[in-house]
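Shall we go through a protein fold together, starting from nothing but its sequence? Please make up or recall a protein chain and show it to me in full. Go ahead whenever you are ready, and we will take it from there.
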Amino acid sequence: MAKKQPAPKKAKTGRPSLYTEVLAANKGETESMAILQNARRERFVQGVVKGISPGPAYTAAGYTATGNSAESAAARLFRNVQVQARRAELQGSTAKQITDVRDLARQCTEDAVNTLKSVMMDKLANSSARVAAANSLLDRGHGKATQHIEAEVSVYDSLSFAEKEALLEVIDEVIDGLDEGNEGNPERPALTHH
């Protein structure tokens, strides 16, 4: 006995929501996808399609391997024909769903702009709503204003103790090499440090 599918939820306008329209439009495609029989392979592919790197996706799928061995095993699994086909299938359906949502949303562009304009022009609306509507219209029409961001990033702080020691050794070697090249040149003082 087939399960009865629930009716699509209606938005406040009385029409189905964009999300339910996309689901309905892709109904045939999503039901026909062939899930890999090997559950770990399926979890691996799902992870990779979601953006997880192959090594971590491999271990998250339930395989036991760590470090470079996980990366190597993931690379081998990635070459599997069924895994490649499943990945292509999932990526294709995801891209199509995104495109469908964009197309449906773009159909509402004129209504959305008119709504923003009416909120912006409504003298009875609170000022924060009017400003937000005006900003949204300006952002859509002219693009968001660029924002200057200052940040200090120190790669050194993220290094392990062993990596810091190795880096300091390399710096010492460079300074020693420069010092040797400056011997006898009074215009270039030695760069030694203590």
